[in-house]
């Protein structure tokens, strides 16, 4: 963990990527308590020590322009400026996997996936080119695939800022950008335009379909020479199942002369549209898995994650993660657990819950490896992690942690232990927040008799569970039973709290509404 504070607001955490001219970090926005990505650039490295002031001005201008482009396929720019000797760009933190890693994990890449990725990129490029902006550095590592299959383009405008030389080579002879994806006119230092990005799109498509870029070599100059003078290998020679129209499109995108490429990104999208999987196909009948780029076309605007169908028994409860065998592993080098716990407490006191969640999630595996999965310190960390997830509203992540804690404590102390019941109660609240009304209702009904045993010392929790049961009955449409439950609850709550307590006032309001509906 770095801990450096950029612009007095963005706390750097871990490096996502690094190059000769800068770094990309995961960071935390202290003011809004959210994850962001921060790109740091060294002007002296970009400009070779010359025209640094001019580069800063260009950077500010480009950031202002790119921040105005609003499209779901483009990463959102939150902030930009100067911090010491570095330029910084603060962007939306995108969950998922970059396209280069996605390709590596799915070899060979299904050709419908390649078409779906390219179509989404065309939609984003069309919005960019309308500004007009040219991306200049489109490549798989600058494209993220989200868990729901949507594609997001990164680094818009940054390549334009870096392109300060009359040619594409820096003082050290290293190309600014990525030679493997560079159009001939860009490599020669000529004028670039929207068709320059379309050439890069053709390289990306060729790589997705064949597993390799069309032109490669041991040196940057060798690669650029091939871009200028060699013809790409036709895709169907490498992979016969690729549709002929797709092969033809890639060859036209890779034309040496920009005028011989498709006119614009909209035209390319139009050609890809006929090859996209449609929502009426058989494949669309089953929910695609995570990071399937065809999903946005198969199930447009569908929520993510896809939930399994529900039957008479309600929504299935997510399975618990498996517990590693309790052995005595060699403790790996990892974070200072005590320091991490102190840091979490400090962050929680400061209201920075999101950052505390990430630290706890990161330290848990190290603590388990060092002390054992069932050690008191790991259980303490897991309890804090679950509680912090709930406080942060991350109920889907909190639920399996709470169920796991309940099972572990039940094994040790029995199912009626008060701590076990509390974990199950909080897990039921997660189900309720996630909209799993049937599952939450069943769990509350199971828990109520146990909590009623403690009513003499703690009457509040049983009353609250009964209120939740009544409200859930309303949500599943059983108004008659809900009214009976809430009416009996009001009688008992009046004795415990008094008739003017907010709990009782709210119950009377609900019952009055139910009476009007029944009438």
Highlighted features:
alpha+beta, 519 residues, Transferase(Phosphotransferase), domain 1, Phosphorylase Kinase, domain 1, 10% strand, single chain, six-stranded antiparallel sheet, 50% helix, three-stranded antiparallel sheet, 21 helices
Description:
The protein is α+β, with helices and mostly antiparallel strands. Among the domains are: 1-93, Phosphorylase Kinase, domain 1 (2-Layer Sandwich); 95-302, Transferase(Phosphotransferase), domain 1 (Orthogonal Bundle), CATH 1.10.510.10. Helix content is 50%, strand content 10%. The protein contains 21 helices and 9 strands. A 6-stranded antiparallel beta sheet has the order 1-2-3-4-6-5. A hairpin with a 3-residue loop joins strand 1 (5-6) and strand 2 (10-19). Helix 16 (395-413) packs antiparallel against helix 17 (418-433). The longest helix has 19 residues, at 111-129. The protein starts with a strand and ends with a helix. Residues 162-175 and 309-333 have low confidence and may be disordered.
Describe the structure in brief.
This protein is of the alpha+beta class and 519 residues long. Among the domains are: 1-93, 2-Layer Sandwich (Phosphorylase Kinase, domain 1); 95-302, Transferase(Phosphotransferase) domain 1 (Transferase(Phosphotransferase), domain 1).
Reported CATH architecture of the domain at 95-302:
Orthogonal Bundle
In whole angstroms, how far apart are the ends?
62 Å
Average residue pLDDT: 84
The biggest beta sheet is recorded as: 6 strands, antiparallel
The outline comes out as elongated
Which structural category fits the helices and strands? alpha+beta
Binned, the helix content reads: 40-55%
Q: Counting H and I runs of at least 4 residues, what is the number of helices?
A: 21
Radius of gyration: 29 Å
- Approximate strand percentage: 5-15%
The CATH H-level homologous superfamily of the domain at 95-302: Transferase(Phosphotransferase) domain 1
Write the element-wise H/E pattern from the N-terminal end onward: EEEEHHEEEHHEEHHHHHHHHHHHHHHHHH
* Side-by-side strand order of the widest sheet: 1-2-3-4-6-5
Name of the CATH class of the domain at 95-302: Mainly Alpha
Uncertain parts: 162-175, 309-333
CATH fold topology of the domain at 95-302: Transferase(Phosphotransferase), domain 1
Strand count: 9
């Amino acid at each position: 963990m770095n801990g450096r504070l950029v612009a007095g607001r963005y706390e750097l955490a871990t490096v996502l990527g690094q190059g000769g001219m800068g770094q990309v970090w995961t960071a935390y926005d202290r003011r809004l308590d959210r994850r962001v990505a921060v790109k740091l650039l060294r002007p002296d490295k970009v400009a070779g020590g010359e025209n640094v002031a001019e580069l800063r001005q260009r950077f500010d201008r480009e950031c202002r322009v790119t921040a105005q482009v609003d499209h779901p396929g483009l990463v959102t720019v939150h902030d930009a400026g100067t911090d010491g000797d570095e330029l910084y760009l603060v962007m939306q933190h995108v969950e998922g996997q970059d396209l280069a890693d996605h390709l590596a994990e799915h070899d060979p890449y299904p050709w419908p996936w390649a078409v779906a990725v390219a179509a989404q990129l065309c939609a984003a490029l069309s919005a960019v080119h309308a500004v007009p902006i040219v991306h200049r550095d489109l490549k798989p590592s600058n494209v993220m695939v989200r868990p729901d299959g949507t594609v997001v383009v990164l680094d818009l405008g940054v390549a334009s800022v870096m392109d300060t030389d009359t040619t594409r080579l820096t003082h050290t002879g290293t190309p600014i950008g990525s030679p493997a994806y560079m159009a001939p006119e860009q490599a020669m230092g000529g004028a670039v335009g929207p068709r320059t990005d379309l050439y890069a799109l053709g390289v990306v498509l060729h790589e997705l379909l064949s597993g390799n870029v069309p032109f490669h070599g041991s040196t940057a100059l060798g690669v650029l020479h091939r871009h200028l003078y060699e013809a790409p290998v036709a895709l169907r020679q490498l992979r016969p199942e690729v549709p002929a129209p797709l092969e033809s499109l890639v060859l036209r995108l890779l034309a040496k002369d920009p005028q011989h490429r498709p006119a614009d990104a909209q035209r390319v999208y139009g050609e890809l549209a006929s090859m996209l999987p449609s929502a009426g196909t058989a494949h669309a009948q089953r929910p695609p898995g995570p990071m399937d780029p065809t999903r946005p076309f198969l199930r447009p605007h569908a929520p993510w994650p896809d939930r399994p169908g529900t039957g008479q028994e309600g929504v299935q409860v997510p399975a618990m993660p498996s517990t590693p065998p309790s052995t005595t592993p060699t403790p790996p080098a990892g974070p200072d657990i005590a320091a991490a716990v102190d840091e979490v407490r400090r962050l929680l006191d400061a209201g920075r819950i999101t950052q505390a969640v990430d630290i706890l999630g990161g330290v848990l595996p190290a603590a388990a490896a060092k002390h054992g999965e069932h050690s008191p310190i790991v259980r303490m960390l897991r309890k804090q992690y679950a509680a912090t997830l709930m406080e942060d509203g991350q109920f889907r992540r909190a639920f399996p942690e709470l169920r796991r804690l309940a099972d572990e404590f039940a094994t040790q102390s029995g199912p009626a232990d008060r701590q076990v019941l509390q974990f199950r109660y909080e897990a039921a609240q997660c189900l309720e927040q996630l909209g799993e009304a049937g599952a939450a209702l069943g769990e509350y009904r199971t828990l109520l008799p146990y909590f009623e045993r403690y009513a003499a010392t703690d009457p509040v929790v049983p009353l609250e569970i009964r209120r939740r049961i009544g409200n859930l009955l309303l949500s599943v449409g059983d108004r008659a039973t809900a009214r009976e439950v809430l009416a009996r609850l009001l009688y008992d709550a009046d004795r415990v709290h008094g008739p003017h307590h907010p709990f009782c006032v709210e119950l009377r309001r609900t019952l009055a509404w139910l009476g009007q509906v029944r009438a």
